Fold each of these.
Amino acid sequence: MSLNSASLGSASLNSASLNRANQENASMDRASLAVDWIRCTAHGLCAEIAPELVTLDDWGYPMVAETVPPHLEALAARARAACPAMALRLSST
Amino acid sequence: MTTPMTTPTNSTMTSTVASPMTSLVTSTGSGSNVADLVAAAPRLLAGLSDGQRVSRLDLGWHLSIHGPLPLAGRRRGAGTLAAIVDQAALRGRGGAGFPFARKLAAVQDGRRRPVVVVNACEGEPLSGKDATLLSRCPHLVLDGAQAAAADSHATTVIMALHANRPGVQQSVEGAIAERSGRDRIPTRIVTIPEGYVSGQASALVHFLNGGPAIPTTTPPRTATKGVDGRPTLVSNAETYAHVALIARHGAAWFRSVGTREQPGTTLVTLSGAVTTPGVIEVPYGVPLSAMMRPSALIRGVLTGGYAGTWISPAAASSMRWSDASAQGLGASLGAGIVMLLPTGSCGLAETSRIVSWMAAQSARQCGPCLNGLPAIAASLAALAAGYGGNQAIDSLHRWAGMVDGRGACAHPDGVVMTVRSALRTFAQDVDHHLAGSCEVTA
């Protein structure tokens, strides 16, 4: 799945299983970013820092890529660290 | 909190426009009807739905019909409760269908002694099965909780009820009083604030821990860390009732009805344009057409509840009450709900009312749900009222994709299911509404 912001905003986000995969399952090979929806209050820093991984929905809340490719793991870590609400979880296997 | 009424908008049932919707045909190939079905398979409802017609089983009646609850591990040739429910392949009856044995094992896996919680909140407006069980045969539910507590060495047994159900509460209080001195850990009733999401497992535990009755982020799941930080078994009231019978009669007995993948019986609440609204008990796999008789020409069928799926009358007439059959038709069983919409009602208007209500039930913790559900509700209302236009349709699809799976609980997911299935099943009505007219109100 292409990770640029154009594709994230459309067809790839139309199923609960796809979105929930972000939340609960780390992929076997890759790191994954997940949003703690209760903590998140749409500061938007994650999308600013890592537009390759995060775009914002119509209400300013993050839509994160399902998996984080190895070359973007450092970027994902920076996004996680920058969140004022500590609402991002980065899990890796 | 008032809920939308699911009555026809026009009580004189005139089909002035020819509708391709066929009525839900009651198949009588085997001569079965609702009464036969209910009488043939009363397990949970034994003594209540057959010849005796007792309205409530007190402890004496309960024991004479079901016999005593065997002590853990003492059943002839049987293992622990955990082993028996595993063999029985009992799945939860609260809507998620999670294997009960796995939940029980998770709760027993920790170092701390668990808490057993009976979830009898039943916040789904179209569901009445748990209220029926607790009003009419509370001892089955209490037995199941005791069996699970004994098997798990639990310290506490809690019955969670919504506050505004005095009849149910009275029945449970009476049953607990009758059992005084008999139960190792007496069941304690806790009343939960009214609300659709307050009966969600983590919300329930949140409230029991002194917080508000709104969901918390999981993991950790309540089975791992719940009330007082203890492993907490949260299961639906009906699930515990099945446990009570499995403990008595065994796994093979439980599996002797139903399907191989989905054994046993289950309770279903029938509402809308049916001749016999109310709660029935059916084996899994039974055809929908054998479960009820429509009282009018049918426009659509809602299965699973407010967070459920609309299907066409044709699909409903071919559907069996099982996950396998439901999935094939894009339907869900939910916590056992079937609502028949007559042709005098507009499916889009009905869905609009449901979704508006569900949007108001949001816990308002998660941005996509808090923002997205009212936006979806507004677009649907515009569509239902005939002034939505194609933009309303586009918005519905866009926002459905944006809220689905993006929350601490599955509340938005449920609304998305209802909306998408409505747009699919009532596609013809969508076309009429886009042109500014409605078959029903025209």
Amino acid sequence: MKRFIFLPLFVLSLLLVPLAYAQTTQQTDYQYQLDQYRKNYSQYQIYLRDYKDESSLNNEQKAITAAKDTLRSRELALAHYYWWQSELVQFTKVDLPVVKQAISDFNDIGQYHYQQLGLIDNIVTRADLTSYTKKNRKDVDKQQLAITKNQTAAKIAKIVSIQLDIKRAFDAIIPQLESTKSTNPSIQNGLDQVSDYSNQVNDLVNSLSEQTVKLDLDIKRAPQFFEDSTETLNQIHALQLKLINLIIELDTAYVAR
Amino acid sequence: MWRDKAKSFILELYPELGKLKFFAQLKEVLIPKLHPYTQKFLRFGLPVAIIVFVLLTGLSVGQRVYKLRQPADITPPPLGLTTPTPDVVFNSEFTVIRDSITSTTYQLPDPVPPVVDYKITLEEFDDDLRL
């Protein structure tokens, strides 16, 4: 019986490219804008305190200006953050509907935050600022479910890309192992373990995918969901490490060169 | 003849020995007359040389006897030089994948989202949103 690593059922066609972790432009821009936000936020806090101590028109105007600067840098930081997220998912080159959805959603959310700059420029009075903040908070709150799901999908994409790497490595050595396994029980044992581990990985990935699809933030908040998911991810990590170590051992010990 | 020569030589060096009966029957001097300095040198040097000779001989004999009584040193035969068999180290090409797994973060969220304040305002309000 031919041995091969089973892949999750929703995998249709896959082309694997190793993940590139070199710092991208989006990541650089995000880090810069985040620094700007922190500086502006500190300034805003100072002017806000002055305004609360003495509610003069001058203090109010200074506080509004500082608030607008903070809002601009915040929205730019968030825009670049979500575009960076989109890039990272694209790097996996995993062709899955859920992954494509994650790329698209991250791009849209980044675009939303970028478009806030125009709205921020229109803020003049204290009431404008409050109105803008209320609406912005509602919009961001609505995004949380998509963000949580897509971040999990992005991680699943990374796991699948690694699993494809492992599958490709296994496929490279399986012909030689199949021909010699009858004379060496260790090879048969190794092949059985590979099949077992890969099935466990697939089960965990499927389980995590289902939980992501069914996620309801009214029942389980994002931090709790991430915590539970991380536990599953750590199990997958351990299994993938066992899988590749097994394949390396089979490669070094039993594949003739 | 040589016994008489030896007796006359010793008598020449130690005339006081003429009183002994052993030298009494010596008829004539069979060795040439020695120079006084030579005679004096030989008179005192001969006993010293004999003593030294006896001591050295005794030491030599004693050392030989001592060595005979010591156990023989057993020296193992020299070992031939051995060349260790070089271990062929084969690195699988799939270690790159393992490095990728170990360097990947299996935690969420990744990357961690920025911590920002979504309530930038000059007025307090409450909207029951947990942001």
